[in-house]
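Ticket #396: bound-state structure for zinc ion.
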Amino acid sequence: MGRRDIDESDFRSRPSKRGSRPRTKQRPEHSDAVTGLVTGVDRGRYTLLVKDVGGADGVGEAGGVGGDGGADVGGGEKIVTAMKARELTRTRVVVGDRVDVVGDVSGGEGSLARIVRIQERTSTLRRTADDTDPYERIVVANADQLVIVTALAQPEPRTGMIDRCVVAAYDAGMSVLLCLTKADLASPDELRALYEPLGVEVVVTRRAASDGEVADGGVAGGGVAGGEGALVLASDSVEEVRDRLRGLVSVLVGHSGVGKSTLINALAPAAQRATGVVNDVTGRGRHTSTSAVALPLPVAVSEGEPADTFDGWVIDTPGVRSFGLAHVEVAHLLHAFEDLDEVAQECPRGCTHLADAPDCALDDWIDASPDDERPARSARLTSFRRLLSSRTGSDA
Ligand SMILES: Nc1nc2c(ncn2[C@@H]2O[C@H](COP(=O)(O)OP(=O)(O)OP(=O)(O)O)[C@@H](O)[C@H]2O)c(=O)[nH]1
Ligand SMILES: [Zn+2]
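RESOLUTION: The complex was predicted; output attached.
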């Protein structure tokens, strides 16, 4: 089992010598726990969304994150602030985690609940260790999809960076949506050609050509994005993004200036009201905090006002610029590409599958290709090999 398969939750779910002793003292105390979804983390305080029902029954589905991926923060949910119970001091709780909480879960002013358990994670996205932080950390738990926000110009797209994100997502067990912004400035064709062969879904946004294009009253950057004169995105392009996010837990990553805040504010103009998170909502304002924030995704935005029903989560990750890939194993990455994985079974032991690998079966796969499939296969293999090398190369 690779290192990436292990995280804090394993240490609780694994039976151990100590764990097999019945903890009779704690069980009854925690049996009244309710489930919450972590939507924000700030200096030891956790913002949770907890289903607001009379009893504890039915609370297990609060937030709907993970599993079915749905999200409902319409009526029956409340925001609860919590801290970790002492037994979790050394356990990391991140945005997207589903946790069991006890104590004052009223969500009332000044109330503080206690997180006593983290539920098993369906996925864990990690960012790289860097000079200031030697530990590789989990950024977000239970996300379905990584949305790589890349500008087609200003700043120029960097495929090395995109490749690294794709690898990180596939390794985390997430799917990928490549969101190409600023299509009013440059064509998306070239990047499409690089990523569609990998099966990566691509969606394109652009600035509204004129006031006329902003049919529904537009989806400007809300009050938060740019304040006065905030750039207005073409609403059809924003709705196309929304379609790809609906019902899913999506993590948005992107370099400064690519238009991530503009997009998030178009998707969820009033998110800060619904989540109770004010400052970290858009990642604007240059927070020193790099923690992620989960925003409920309105099913639609009309006249600049979001609908009050939600279906999905948008998780913003201010400060997350890169992902550590050193731990990614080739075999594991291959699993994300079923056809290539099957072919590679024929490779010599220890094959790197790179272009210079002797007798790599993936080369035979191209050679043996029917003529009409050859260009598609070649493009796919070339893109795959680019991903493979991004694990070790820099993202220049
Ligand atoms: N031409 C054009 N400009 C855009 C588009 N989307 C955003 N911008 C502009 O690009 C700049 C950066 O947008 P932001 O939304 O602040 O970018 P960001 O990725 O959040 O960057 P940080 O705030 O630094 O994290 C702003 O001046 C936007 O008005 C677009 O579709 N077309
Ligand atoms: Zn090979």
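RESOLUTION NOTES: The pocket of zinc ion (ligand 2) is lined by residues 344, 347, 351, 353, 357, 360-362 (CB under 6 Å).
TICKET STATUS: resolved
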